[in-house]
Structure formats: C-alpha cells, structure tokens
Model the fold of this input.
Amino acid sequence: MTTSERTERIRPSTVAGERESLQSWLDHHRETLALKCAGLTEAQLREASVPPSELTLLGLVRHMAEVERAWFRRTLSGEEAGPIYYSDADQDGDFHPGEGDTWDEAYATWQAEITRARELAAPHSLDHLGAGRRDRTTGEPYNLRWIYTHMIEEYARHNGHADLIRERIDGVTGE
Done:
C-alpha cells in the first residue's frame, strides 16, 4: 500500500458477540492507524510531533509491528520471535527509523505481523492461555481475551498520538 491509497475502516457491530466485537474493534484501530498515515510523503511520515519528542507516524507503525509480534507470537504462541527494529543498543529502535528505512518496508512488515497475529489467534478460544511470556508481577499467563483487550488499548493510545501528529503535519483530523 502506498500512502496515497485510502484504507476503509470496518464499523464494529453494536450487537456482536464478545469475540467478534474484540476482533472487529482491534481491526478498526489497525485501520485507523493506516488512515492516519494515508496520503503522506516519506518526509511527512518522518516528521516528529513536537520537540523534544521524536514520535513520528513511521515510528508508530514500526512500533505497532513490534507490539503485534510481542503479544501474538511471543506471548500467545510462545514463539522465539526476535525484535524487528529495536536492539539492546537502542531499546526504542522502532521509533528511530534510519535514513534507509522506508514506509513501504514498515507497512509491509506491520501487515505481515497483523496477518500472523490473526493466524495465531484463530484456532483459540478467548480463554486460551498463552504459551509464552507471563505477567512479570503475578507470573500468570495471559489469555487471548486479555491480549485482544490490551491490543485495542495500545492502538487506541497510539492512534491518539497519530491524530495529533497528522494534525500538525497537514491539519487533517478525524475519528
């Protein structure tokens, strides 16, 4: 997808069951982030919100690829999936794209992580306990319901950031 294309968002049902509701709200928020990035140039996608913040739309998309990977691959499935953009040397590397990093690569990586997340979640009930990392405080595993809820929260928070960044870049706002 180039940034000139528009993404249509699904409208979550007002009468859906629990799983359908969680999945549709997560997809709604994924699509919202894509819309916040639509129609911008590479340079605009790299524009920081306001000094001293380094937060950019490109960085947010890279971050959400990491978040999808962490919660679905590592936590739900127990995969040994290493980081994509961050490292021991730069724990916030997802937010620090280099000169050679592009929107096309970041978007493709993010979409691949979303596809993998859907595949990993599909066979499980909401009560399914993740095979990977556990809560640092309690040692309890996370169930799929918790992961969906957390992912919705994570996207909602960062979509608020994205809305402010986009408004600063070209004045575009929206829900």
